[in-house]
């Protein structure tokens, strides 16, 4: 079944689970964008399952409104997405994601290895997972607000792969400079900047989708997960 329920510290919430053909398998927690567990996030899970991972995308907006599945195609949906972003508590989100890690590690089909991949808001959460949880590795795609969280970098104890867009309208040049300075020399952080790309360059059919940059980032992610989780 693709839909499962996970018991978190504040209650139960739903998640999309994609299962690979060969089991047991390592697992990946997919941290959503600001649009909820929509088709884009489900497709990411299916892509990861195709590579041999249990892939789980939890509904981290459940405290605000369960079951959000909107797109980036209309002004009204963008407005709602930013409302959700403003109402969202990242600390509570990390508690939920930590519960997902525990759920997957205890899953009969999991090898016990669990990493994360996050996009936009989820990219921020993937960074925080690296700082605050025991996930085995983490991948952040164009995470937002990371320049305000660099003080937590000393807590990173497992590998973190980061994809940053040079023209990201949500991560201005001064913020990017701080991130590079704060994380560029961290021994566990592998930071890549994609020149002439804007936010969400890896979102297929998105306004700023860049096929070449997305392939490069996804290939790096594939190799990174295989190196740190196996498959």
Automatic annotation (TrEMBL):
Known Pfam families for this protein? DLH (PF01738)
Q: Which InterPro entries match?
A: AB_hydrolase_fold, Dienelactn_hydro, Dienelactone_hydrolase-like
What are the UniProt keywords, alphabetically?
Hydrolase
Extract the coiled-coil ranges from the record.
none
Q: Dienelactone hydrolase domain: which residues?
A: 13-227
**What would you give as a GO molecular function for this chain, any one?**
hydrolase activity
Q: Which protein, by its recorded name, is this?
A: Dienelactone hydrolase family protein
Biological source species: Denitrobaculum tricleocarpae
């Amino acid at each position: 079944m693709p839909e499962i329920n996970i018991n978190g510290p504040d209650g139960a919430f739903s998640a999309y689970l994609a299962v690979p053909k060969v089991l047991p398998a390592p697992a990946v927690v997919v941290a959503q964008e600001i649009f909820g567990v929509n088709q884009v996030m489900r497709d990411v899970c299916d892509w990861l399952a195709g590579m041999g991972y249990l892939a789980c995308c939890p509904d981290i907006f459940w405290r605000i409104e369960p079951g959000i599945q909107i797109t980036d195609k209309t002004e009204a949906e963008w407005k709602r997405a930013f409302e959700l972003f403003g109402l969202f508590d990242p600390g509570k989100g990390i508690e939920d994601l930590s519960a997902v890690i525990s759920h997957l590690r205890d899953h009969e089909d999991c090898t016990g290895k669990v990493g994360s991949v996050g996009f936009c808001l989820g990219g921020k959460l993937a960074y925080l997972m690296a700082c605050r949880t025991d996930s085995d590795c983490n991948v952040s795609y164009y995470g937002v607000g990371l320049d305000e969280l660099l003080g937590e970098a000393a807590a990173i104890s497992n590998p973190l792969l980061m994809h940053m867009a040079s023209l990201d309208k949500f991560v201005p040049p001064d913020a990017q400079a701080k991130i590079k300075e704060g994380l560029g020399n961290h021994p566990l952080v592998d930071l890549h900047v994609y020149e002439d790309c804007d936010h969400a360059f890896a979102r297929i059919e998105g306004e700023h989708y860049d096929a070449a940059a997305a392939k490069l980032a996804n290939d790096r992610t594939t190799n990174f997960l295989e190196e740190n989780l196996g498959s």
